[in-house]
Prior knowledge:
- With 430 residues, the protein is α/β, with parallel strands linked by helices.
- The protein has helices at 171-178, 253-267, 269-272, 294-302, 320-332, 375-383, 389-401, 404-410; strands spanning 5-11, 44-48, 63-65, 85-89, 93-97, 103-107, 113-117, 148-155, 161-164, 196-202, 205-211, 238-244, 276-281, 308-311, 359-362, 369-373, 418-421, 424-427.
- The chain folds into 3 domains: 1-155, GTP1/OBG domain (Spo0b-associated Gtp-binding Protein, Chain: A); 161-332, Rossmann fold, CATH 3.40.50.300; 354-427, GTP-binding protein OBG, C-terminal domain (GMP Synthetase, Chain A, domain 3, 2-Layer Sandwich).
- It contains 8 helices and 18 strands.
- The termini are far apart.
- Residues 183-192 and 222-226 have low confidence and may be disordered.
- It is found in: Cytoplasm.
Amino acid sequence: MFADRAKITICSGKGGDGHVSFRRELFVAAGGPDGGDGGKGGDVIFEVDKGMTTLGDYRHKHKFSAQPGENGGKSRCHGANGSDIVLKVPEGTVIKDAESGKVIADMSGDNMRQIILKGGRGGLGNQHFATSTMQVPKYAQPGKPAQELVVSLELKVIADVGLVGFPNVGKSTLLAHVTNAKPKIANYHFTTLSPNLGVVDLDGSGFVIADIPGLIEGASEGVGLGHEFLRHIERTKVMIHLVDAASTEGRDPIEDVYKINEELRAYNEEISKRPQVIAANKIDAIYTEDGEDPVQKLKDEFEPQGIKVFPISAVTGKGLKELLYYVRDLLNELPQEPMIFEQEFFPDEVRIDDNLPYTVTKSEEDDHTYIVEGPKIEKMLGYTNLESEKGFLFFQNFLKDTGILQELEDAGIQEGDTVRMYGLAFDYYK
């Protein structure tokens, strides 16, 4: 099954903790601190694999983590850095923050490899904290925590031209005739269940064309299967509307063009404004009793709007040369730079806001126990080594500076009462 979307959780590696130790050797009465630094956590890296065509590798596994850094050791031993995790994706994959929908990276063009989440920095060992006044530091720095992010992956095919139309109008037949692509072709709706790419070669120059699976009315709202593939026309510069000029299934080709444009407009207003060409297919099957020419009716309707109409037969090849050369000339008039989605979301800038709330509440089970919770508290506990003197002093200053101590006092805390924070318990003394 063609997979062009996935939602996964990625996690970088936590930095290793710095080590607390002191030099102990024979004949060395008071060796100084020699705790080593922690290793850096591994990064999460996305890399383009040009041999991949779908996101099928991410259909069954949904969490990917880099390796944490090792803790530092004694004798100034530096902890090993954690291994990076490299996630392979097909070219054209757009990585977005799942919550906001903002683009983190577009894996196309020159961007073949990008670090999405950086591993945590390793903590410093106690060797770095010795001063003239503190020659025996019993404190080492914890490693920086890992970053975790839920991202959505969307494969948007890279093509110059998008071939759109209702089901069974001959898109796959046209693609097979003008390129080396070999799409499945059959006489029933939704034969094409994945976008097919082909290269049109015209005297040494040409363009990439994508056959987008058939749209139906309401596709932009999720009706039918066509909406699954609308994202694949976001990179295309020119749209070819293929219509059944012979109305072999009783459809009105003029009405079809308007309906397709309405679906494009509903999905993305900007896409509907791109240059368009109409290919009036199946002219070899046209037969009308009243003598009206359906191709001429298409021309009368759309050419005054600046949309050129070409009568073609995808089966016999009639009219295809004129259509393809016109499309190539149209592309040559447009900017040649590939369509890249700019980065909108920067994971490195995501930080817990110091103004995030916290709560101070009295326990319902015990009048002498108070509970402090909130993102600010979690962040502080994640960065602080409470087992060291210096770390615990930092913790006490944090409670004072943020006003948490004052709130506890306002809530009626007395000496000897207990304060609980995320599994930790402390006795309160002024």
